[in-house]
Amino acid sequence: MSAPASLARKACLALVAPGMLLAPAGCSLLDPGDREAKAYVEQMQPIFVQNMELTREFVDIATEVKKGEARPSDIARRFEEKLVPQATALRDAVAAVHPADEELAATHAVLASAWTGRVEVYAELHRAWGEGDLEAFDAARRRNLKLKGAEERYLIDVNRWLAEHDRALDPYP
Fold first, then answer.
1. pTM of the model
2. Alpha-carbon dihedral of residues 87, 93, 95, 96, nearest 10 degrees?
């Protein structure tokens, strides 16, 4: 906590009378970083709930393909009707979050970039599957793994920042 924020918090605490439930007007018992962390988790946690749904759908498709149980037309339809639209909606939801803290904003930008890339990869996977282009499909699959690595780095970094404010983001709710 910065020195000015710490002093402001102490000044507010000094103004709170014993037994009062509310701080005087203009006083917040949370420093700006704590407020930012709380708001960020409140915005991002529901997005990660939706992300888990997308991840499950992707894993289901991958499992069916690997086991040879997949019908090509079903896979194409699921990419078109579920995966690409859900990934697009999540990309847009993350792009709508604008942290004020510079460090948090830079960390958030990593996720925004990864999920933008994921939309492109899912579209590439869909196209390659439909065309039977195994090389393009494999290239898109490898790119997806790199994007997943960027997402994992984001989670480490964002939870490190959030931990400084006694918060955490659960990527697997």
1. 0.80
2. 170
Residues in the chain: 173
Q: For the chain, give the secondary structure using H, E and C.
A: CCHHHHHHHHHHHHHCCCCCCCCCCCCCCCCHHHHHHHHHHHHHHHHHHHHHHHHHHHHHHHHHHHHCCCCHHHHHHHHHHHHHHHHHHHHHHHHCCCCCCHHHHHHHHHHHHHHHHHHHHHHHHHHHHHHCCHHHHHHHHHHHHHHHHHHHHHHHHHHHHHHCCCCCCCCCC
pLDDT digits (tens, 9 = 90+) for 2-44: 444 444 444 444 444 444 444 444 445 568 889 999 999 999 9
The CA radius of gyration of the chain, in Å to the nearest whole number, is 21
